[in-house]
Amino acid sequence: SKTRKEFLIGQGFASSSQNRENSWFKSLFVRKVDPRKDAHSTLLTKNEQSNLYKIQFHNVKPECLDAYNKLCEDVLPSIHVDKYYPCELVGTWNTWYGEQDQAVHLWRYRGGYPALTEVMNKLRQNKEFTAYRKERGKMLLSRRNQLLLEFSFWNEPTPREGPNIYELRSYQLRPGTMIEWGNYWARAIGIRQHNSEAVGGFFSQIGDLYMVHHLWAYKDLQSRDVTRNAAWQQEGWDEVVYYTVPLIQHMDSRIMIPTKASPLQ
Predict the structure, then answer these.
(1) Is 33's pLDDT higher than 60?
(2) CB 52 within 8 A of CB 112
(3) Angle at the Cα of 240 from the Cα atoms of 238 and 242, rounded to 5 degrees
(4) Where is the NIPSNAP domain (predicted)?
(5) Which of 43, 102, 183, 220 could be a cystine partner for 95, CB 3.0 to 4.6 Å?
(6) Domain segments of the chain: what residues?
(7) CATH architecture of 51-258
(8) pLDDT (tens digit, 9 = 90+) per residue, 198-248?
(9) Which helix (H) or strand (E) holds 205?
(10) pLDDT given for residue 89 in this prediction
(11) CB atoms within 10 A of CB 39
(12) What gap in Å lies between CA 26 and CA 19, rounded to an integer?
């Protein structure tokens, strides 16, 4: 049987100009996705024991942002390095462009849902973390989170030396199109690796559904512009954009600056 990666890559692109012209009208609408007997999470992840990720969005009172960052720097790294908790802090950022006065945290749980449950149960008994949550609550306007899995064809995020800026591009897909999205990006990701800008790719399991997050790293805004423009000179990139845009209901972009506590700098 084919591996998941072979399945994704084997779907292929429409290669001829005739096929492309014939499909132009159809591409304006959601194309029918072949019925599957497997959940898309099974087909798109690395294996059955895939890492689980949690992304948190905290909207902070503007006057409290510095104090909030200091509080997080004092507490979150201790959880990250403590082997008692089967979780890792992948990155923590403040938004620079996009939603203002917002903090974004990305956690990884090796072992999936059981690891998440174990961490949550242990943290409830952690007096320092309980005090942190109480103090943090005074500084927040709102907060939300999502549980994510990682695409099999993306890198697993690993610590980076800085300085870098990070772009989190979030896509709300039309229901039923996640496999199709994966088919195209399984081939396309190689086009976006030339400057090691690809950090991680994820899709939601709990929270806002049919959400995809792509995380990119750049030296600065100018290098982001140069790198993104260079992708259009690579064979196949125009097809990726052409065929994936109709799958999207909504998209947004955040430019983020890592905090001192972030393993991704």
Answers:
(1) no
(2) yes
(3) 65
(4) 166-263
(5) 102
(6) 51-258
(7) 2-Layer Sandwich (3.30)
(8) 999 999 999 999 999 999 999 999 999 999 999 999 888 999 999 999 999
(9) strand 198-206
(10) 97
(11) 11
(12) 11
